[in-house]
């Protein structure tokens, strides 16, 4: 095993490599820190440095390092397959009119003032019912992104509240895999774990709901003109088949998720249902296959976005819609927005995200094999003497694990296993800490902060599906970073800390 100083050196150098490659900070003096690159190459270089240091400091042979890389990637192969399936699903859903249908009707039902709050609550309900933040983001989340764009809400803001709602349900739903994993690692039981989480999650959700309502007020004065919404709906009706049948594929996916059908078969079922709809609407088999492979590319809407005058626009839509002369600028702006929103999906559309995940997990595999992160966590654990220190250390460890191992499950399992003995041994006034405190803290941090790391499987997935860079939606994913803060404040105040009698714990 490496020494603490060696592990700390590796962590610092890796952090500098990644942050300098990814960030783009401009100072008043004119100096610039960062290259504003995609995270792929910085992560790759950090992995190379870590592997070299593993050989120098620990004496790890290349065969062991390589095996660690492969094991790191293996952990996320299911996530990679889900990403590829979701890419194909998005292409099919746009081609068949599923996404345009949800946007079309959503524009009729949601107002700008209440849109953010509605997005938060809708995603919370769906994820609570399905137990899956990924299914929520990949179904209603996509539609809400389109509705938000139509209502004039910036995409990062919409994405932040979609993710907040999706992870609220994922965190406390008994159907969620992380909700079951955390108590298993900590030695708690499922429903006691959920009850413990309510103490930190519900107050945070109330705070975030208030923020959503307050931010929504900013869109009241600039309420979207009826002409803009009409242009959006007319253009989508001209290019796609808009009907209530478009809700069948997403409802099918959500139903299968509720029935606990595994994610990949459920996603494929939704994809096939949409592909069949597209064929029945008259799309050729080649068009369907192209949408599954390379995503949907708007045709009529793209032409409208490049038209020079209103006569050209009306000629392009061929009677499917008729626009007045004074609507040209609105129609052209809306067409450009829709073209960017709907040109997406397909297997190839997810390859950049898949590559990011694989490179991040290579780094994580090397870090784990060489023992660098384990040494740092052990040193952190030894310095803890209070309940607050334990909770703060678990939160910090989960965040670091999400950053350097790149996977949400590892961020629950590794800190959970390492801190469980410390929680078991902590005793005060004849009482011991209930395992629920550890399981709750793992979810308050490990589950929620995973989506805030661009190269974590969760961050990469949501960024790819919602079409918004992770660092752009991060400031608006309020639930995900406020929940750990609420947990720390409540622990400091001594609120909702579960204790059990020491003799009862020994007997158990």
Comma- or semicolon-separated keywords:
508 residues; single chain; 26 helices; mainly alpha; 3-stranded antiparallel sheet; two-stranded antiparallel ribbon; 5 strands
Explain what the structure shows.
By secondary structure, the chain is an all-alpha fold. The protein has a domain at 350-507. 74% of the residues lie in helices and 2% in strands. It is built from 26 helices and 5 strands. The protein has helices spanning 4-22, 40-58, 62-75, 77-95, 98-109, 112-130, 133-151, 155-172, 177-186, 190-216, 226-239, 248-258, 263-280, 285-294, 300-305, 310-317, 328-342, 351-370, 372-382, 387-404, 408-425, 435-449, 457-466, 470-473, 478-493, 502-507; strands at residues 25-26, 32-33, 427-428, 431-433, 499-501. The strands form 2 sheets. It has a 3-stranded antiparallel sheet with strand order 3-4-5. Helix 5 packs antiparallel against helix 11 (226-239), helix 6 runs antiparallel to helix 10 and helix 10 (190-216) crosses helix 25. The longest helix is centred in the middle third of the chain and has 27 residues, at 190-216. It is globular and about 80 Å long. The mean pLDDT is 92.
